[in-house]
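Course assignment 3, question 2. Fill in each field.
Student: A.L.
Task: Predict the tertiary structure for the chain below.
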Amino acid sequence: MVLVSNPYKFIFLKTGKTAGTSVEMALEPACAPKGHEVKERVATVISETGIVGSRLLPCTLPPQPALERGTWCNHKSAAHIRRDLGEMRFNSYTKITTVRNPFDQCVSAFHWQHRRLIDLIDGFAQLRSAFQAYIKARDWVTNKPIVFIDGTYIIDRAIRFEHLHEDLSAVANDLGIPLQPAGLPHTKSTSNTRKSYLLADYYDQTCIDIVRERLAWVFEHFDYPDHPQFIEQGQS
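Answer field:
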């Protein structure tokens, strides 16, 4: 989804499999009228306070929601957000997103997209083969349309998956955003399907090179290692 807060002057742009849902649910009260109930599934809410985009309700959206003027939904591109908000408002608001180690993000995305089939795979060798085919097909999302406009990186603040609470607290403190004391909700986890497999074991050199090429923007803007061997496995 996308969030827009008028009191706190921020826009949250949601990337995929980076704990975006958890962060947006934490920030959502700053974008909605008093009394708004934060739930995992939500229809679009537009008010004087701001905008809460539709989340997990694809049946209510048009076939190409990001291209429909005035539609607010999951993973709407930065260019379309700017178009619908207007350049002055878009440029003056702090733009926030979430990021994650690319190697970990790709494994998490694979498990989430294939979650209904994972249990049918016989052993890790088949799982690894399926993952590598997924990476080599090169049709998985890179999130670039969410964080770039015409080749320019437009994000002001990024919340790292690996430092989620620390980074979110820092952003909230800097912008004066009140956070609920209950903490971050945990949603759409894939840890039960990933089990105890080592992250590096999913990859061969070809897959490493593809991830480094297609997610080069993450490596360039954040201090992530260029090999999956050197990071711990993620948990969602």
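Instructor remarks: The longest helix spans residues 123-137. The chain has ten helices and eight strands.
Grade: pending
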